[in-house]
Amino acid sequence: MKRDLKALIGQMTLEEKASLCSGSDFWHTQGIERLGIPAVMVTDGPHGLRKQAGEADHLGLNDSVEAVCFPAGCATGSSFDPDLLEHMGQVLGDECQAEDVSILLGPAVNIKRSPLCGRNFEYISEDPYLAGKLSAAYIRGVQSRGVGTSIKHFAANNQETRRLTISSDLSERALHEIYLPAFEEAVKAAQPKTVMCSYNKINGVYASENKMLLTDILRDQWGFEGYVVSDWGAANDRVKGLEAGLDLEMPSSNGYNDAKIVAAVQNGSLDEAVLDRAVERILKVVFSYVDARRPDTVFDRAKDHAEAVAVETQCAVLLTNQGVLPLGTDQKIAYIGEFAAAPRYQGGGSSHIHPSRVTSAWEVAQQKGRNVCYAKGFSAMRDEMTDAELAEAIQAAQNADVAVVFAGLPESFESEGYDRTSMELPACQNRLIDEIAKVQPHVVVVLHNGSAVELPWADRVSAILELYLGGEGVGEAADQLLYGEANPSGHLAETFPLRLQDNPSYLHFPGNDKRVAYGEDVFVGYRYYDTKQVPVRFAFGHGLSYTEFAYSNLQLSAPALQDGQTVTVSVDVTNTGKVAGREVVQLYVRDKNGTPERPSKELRGFAKVLLEPGECKTVTLTLAARDLSYYEERLHDWFAPSGVYEVMVGRASDDIRLTAELSFTTEKQIPFVVTLTTTLGELLTCPKTAPTIMQLLAPLAQSAGTDGLDEGSMNMMKKMIMEMPLKSLVSVMPGDQIELLIQQMNLLLAQ
Length: 751
Prior knowledge:
Strand order of the largest sheet: 10-16-15-14-11-13
Distance between the termini: 56 Å
CATH architecture of the domain at 302-538: 3-Layer(aba) Sandwich
Number of helices: 22
Structural class: alpha/beta
Largest sheet: 6 strands, mixed
CATH topology of the domain at 302-538: Rossmann fold
CATH class of the domain at 302-538: Alpha Beta
Shape: globular
Number of strands: 29
């Protein structure tokens, strides 16, 4: 239905306009009955509906209605499968329609800067390219059902410690290169109905009143069309926030901030047009849901439970396998660890879903008549194990053909609201795995965790299957994966370092009581580990299968690329094993031009392909100038220097199978202005100024008397000359001549 929103706003009182810019309660927007404006509900996601029918809260403390709990972002990120995320979004969108929810608060795309972030289980990846592609697919899926999404938390919200007040202090380059691209991709490719601004400050300015973030970048540069909503309680100065681009404050301030908006308009400190613009944005989204409402939609929890199981089977990551998996139905198996009977399947806090059912691997094994026994071993709730429980577990392992230990992090170890202080699993779990490995040569460890953990026993077990937090169907998925009814196809969306101290943010995370310095800059995750050649336990993109894949015939559609063009990269992938499987083909790019401070490789494309045994398919990906670029602060824009780039295709950041070179040319140049502090080296490497400087230096070199100098002395002199600023020439030529020289070279550069 078409509506004249400006005319509708013209009928409102000033007080009514202000009221629309905050919630009517914890979960509903404000309605105006006399004008036919309804209140609509928003609710937490991203991996299920946390719709609260009773007393409301934003920390998952109070009960919500029964819903289906899908795998969390830590798991779905490992799918590397946009089609899967879009399908999951469609299911969630239908559930929202059935429950009359207008906005699902998600996806959460903040970068996994440190493995200690308590909310990493909800985030997708350490890599912004992957997070952007998957989040855009999720948004398209949900919004195809007439329901909006709220991508969050915008921006640089990478820790829980003092998240309400901390200032994330980072370079312009790191902000644009690492922490914004996932939001940018989602906005440009999928147009989420809303964007949720974060609690924290960015370089001293609260996100909720950051005009650069909410208007200059989000709207003017990216073309965002929806409204910006605050994280719950994130609004700071409400009038400043409105001017900066924060449209809707949630939850309700019970009229307190509405009155401030009214007063600001009345005293002339706030232009009423700013308020009108925010109201129009909100109404546009509200009515888009009203017009797409499908009240007859049915929430089929049994059907969607099966969907949750299917999603998890494509997310789990087989980290190691020495041939022990898949298990045989004729083998005697011992399931050990309370997670086998009481799995951890989701994180704590605002995304905590009240599932209609949860299945455990032990329950499924009994239903299917598997030859499996169970020993509790350790607690799923805390770091606790009695001597009797340990003895029972060891005995069960000794009597079995294979011992499967269901390990992981208890919910109390990671949650919204606080960060971890260690990457370690509970000590009792490490002890039990060590003891079982002494008596049983075939040990499989199944992990339930929301972020990377240290695995000191990894080389002493036969297989490790990473389930992450796999949703309410995690037990059924685990059974299918362990017994080969499903083939693992997940690949890590984050690096597993050998130890916490290896992480690039280690010296800075989580900062002091006022600020956190992003001292690692753009070297986050694999960008750091690969560039510095730091050994890791499992690399970004790593994931095994029950089959094998061969790569061949890497081809570029053209050997060279220019601005505005694209080049197609194709590679043949063959399933050389005996079972069907999905392979994740990953495309990385390396700058080979000596550009300072660039990672050794960056993900610039990926595709997941299903192959039957012996089948070969050609995977095609596309590169453009942006894929070769870094964010150049002198341009305040993306830039790729002319030169040579290496195109790398493989199955993990440390498992590159094929490479090719691509030439690139651009007319874009970095601004170069000559001053007294410009070095001779800079002038000698610039084609426009080099001849002038060579002519200047020739007589100086002759008078320097370099004959007879040894090689070391010559190298020292060359280095000193290259780093010498023009002002240093004042000892050998008049200052006014130096100033004239500077003017001449700037004229040359301007031509």
